[in-house]
């Protein structure tokens, strides 16, 4: 059982990965503004951050234990042909002429779909 007064450090900083108090406005380690983040997902091959304007992919190493330092940014308004794959859980879109395929764990897949829907992003859904 948790004490009611215990602070939850469940507000993960997308930039450095440190857990912050859920009500923190800036990261306690790197001072990053945490209010920009609409959704943050830790998945097998990458961490994904969604803001109002972009999707940010923080790539992880082969062993999935830490990030490689490679960060890919996708501007939401430049994402085309967005779809959620079926039966394998994948998030797919065209970006500047290239097809991007991001395999997602089930829970993350559902959360990303719900959040994009709430942001008014149009996508195809084959379920
Ligand atoms: Zn941080």
Describe this structure in words.
The chain is globular. The strands form three sheets. Strands 3-4-5-6 form a four-stranded antiparallel beta sheet, covered by helices on one side. Strands 9-8-7-10 form a four-stranded mixed beta sheet, with no helix packed on it. Strands 1-2 form a two-stranded antiparallel ribbon. Helix content is 11%, strand content 41%. The protein is built from one helix and ten strands. It has a single domain, classed as Pleckstrin-homology domain (PH domain)/Phosphotyrosine-binding domain (PTB) (PH-domain like, Roll), CATH 2.30.29. It has 127 residues and is mainly beta.
CATH superfamily, called what? Pleckstrin-homology domain (PH domain)/Phosphotyrosine-binding domain (PTB)
Largest sheet: 4 strands, antiparallel
| Number of contiguous helices | 1
Helix and strand content put the structural class at mainly beta
Question: Got a strand count?
Answer: 10
Spans with pLDDT under 50 lasting ≥5 residues?
none
Element order: H for helix, E for strand = EEEEEEEEEHE
Helix content: 10-25%
| Cα-based radius of gyration, to the nearest Å | 16 Å
Bound molecules: zinc ion
Straight-line N-to-C gap: 38 Å
From the 3D coordinates, which CATH architecture would you assign? Roll
Average of pLDDT: 92
Write the layout of secondary structure elements.
Layout: E1 11-12, E2 19-20, E3 37-42, E4 46-51, E5 54-60, E6 67-75, E7 79-84, E8 90-95, E9 98-103, H1 106-119, E10 124-125
Parallel strand pairs: 7-10
Antiparallel strand pairs: 1-2, 3-4, 4-5, 5-6, 7-8, 8-9
